[in-house]
Structure formats: C-alpha cells, structure tokens
Protein: P2X purinoceptor
Organism: Electrophorus electricus
Amino acid sequence: MCCGGRCCVSMTQCFFDYSTSKVLVIRSKSVGTLNRFCQAVVLAYIIGYVCVLKKGYQDTDTVISSVTTKVKGIALTNTSDLGLRIWDVADYVIPPQEENSFFVLTNLNITPNQTQTRCAENPGPGSTCTSGRDCKRGFHDSRQNGVQTGRCIQFSVTEKTCEVLAWCPLEKGNDPPERNILPHVNSSYLSQCVFNRTTDPDCPIFRLGDIASEAGEDFQTMAVHGGVMGVQILWDCNLDMPESWCMPTYTFRRLDNKDPDNNVAPGYNIRFAKYYKNGGKESRNLVKGYGIRFEIMVFGKAGKFNIVPTLLNIGAGLALLGLVCRAFWILKLYD
C-alpha cells in the first residue's frame, strides 16, 4: 500500500499530464501514394457526396400540403338515350369539391323514369324462379335491387324471376357504351399555357388526355370503363437559393388494376339519381357513371443552412480522415 500523501501526489501528476501521439514518418512512395489517394477519396466523399449531393450542411423538413383543384371545359354527346347534349362542369364533375382529388364523368348508362313500384328482378342465382314457391316474401339481398313480394312473374319470353318492390324499371347490367371522343407563371401565362413536358413543364393546367398519355394510357380506352389516376407533385427545394428556383415537378401514373382477369370490377364507376315529380308521383333517372378519379399526392422536402448538421458532418469527415491515416500507420508498423 502507498501512503496517503504519495497517492495524492501521483494522482495530481496524472491529472495534469498531457500526452501526444508519436509521429512516424514513413518514406515509401507506394505507401505514401496510396495514403494520399485514400485521403483524396475521403475528402471527395465529404465535399462531393455529403456536402454537395446530400446537402449535409442543411436542416431539412418534409412537405405538408393542401391542394385545390378546378375543372373547366364542355363536352358534346349524341346518344340514343339523351340525344344531342352539351355537358358542362356541373354535369360531369361529381361531387363538385373533394379533398386532394376530383372525379370526371367520362361515360354513363342511364335508366330513365324509375318509380317505386313492383317489377321482375334481373335474372341471377337468387332471383330466377319457376313458381311462387321459389320466391320468399320480404327477402332481400345486397346483390339484388329490391324486396321480394313472393310472386314469380315473367321477366322475358323465356325466363321468369321473382317480383320485387323497388325502383322500376331496374337498372340493366349492360356494359358501358363505346364512344368516340373528339380529338413564366402569372395570370397572363396561366390564361394561355397548357402543361407540356417539353415546352411548359411548370404549367398547372392539364388536359385529361395529356395526363393519360404521360401515364402511358390511352384516354379513349380508359374513358369507357373509368379508372383511377395518380397526379404526383414533387417539391424539392433548396431554401439557400432564390425562391423562384423552388418549382414543382409533375408525374402521372395509373393506380387501379386494369387487368380484367385479376379484377372483379375493372375501372371506376359511381351511381347517382336525379329526382322529380311526375303527376304528383316521385320518379327518378338513375345514372351509372363511369369516369376517371384523379388522386393528387404531394411529396418533397426543403433544406436550409444550419450550423449544427454542418459541424456534425465536418467532424465525422475529419474522424474518418484520421482513421485512414491511423490505418496506414498500423499497416506499415506490421509490414
């Protein structure tokens, strides 16, 4: 054991000591060249990748967004159900406003003049019958159109189905009809520009056909059964640069599964009705509308200089540089 005084003196000397690492100069062209090369690689990584490419000197944050949309334009149709008709925004944008999305009607099946009465159910596994014993009074199924009355009536010349209390005549399960569809930023610019990947990539005004083409789809084919289209807006902004440099980039892709073999109901459709009084009796026109739903998704980040991440990345780079030098010293020591 040591005396108390000697231990105190020894501890005091250790506390106030300062040691430095021993420097060993290795005169070797091969080792020196490899050492400088590795140091250059480390410096290139710190300056080129960390600082310039990844902007390690910046503090970053992700985008929080809200998008408003407005649809404009008219369409002309000539069908056996409606005749010659002009459609405007109030007709084909349903509902008028949605959050970060909108739906454009591109095709429809109309069942006009429906009233609440009794009629034959459409043929199906639960509705086809040969007599009233096959129909159960009060029975209803989510796959059918109304409540059964218990009677079996003629649906067509060759087929009988159960009578239902429903909105009649019932909607027919027809395929949608094929149709032939005719072929920088300020108020002045917006009044004339239309988005084009080459000439006007910053214009926020889009033609529906151009959006489909950008996603690799044919608009006329997609308009028959409908679908879901994603509008992706990317903001990648360097706030150390002028604000005018912060511009969005638009990309488009189809989101729904268009493969009919792997999808029970390909496309996109909705049903809505327009009610009216006919001789004091409530009637309606049922519309099964096919269209394209546009989902708007915003991604991105913004970065601005901050001293904390700058010092952290510089310190990590210097430590890596020192580690390379120490590794070469150890390599030569054991050589």
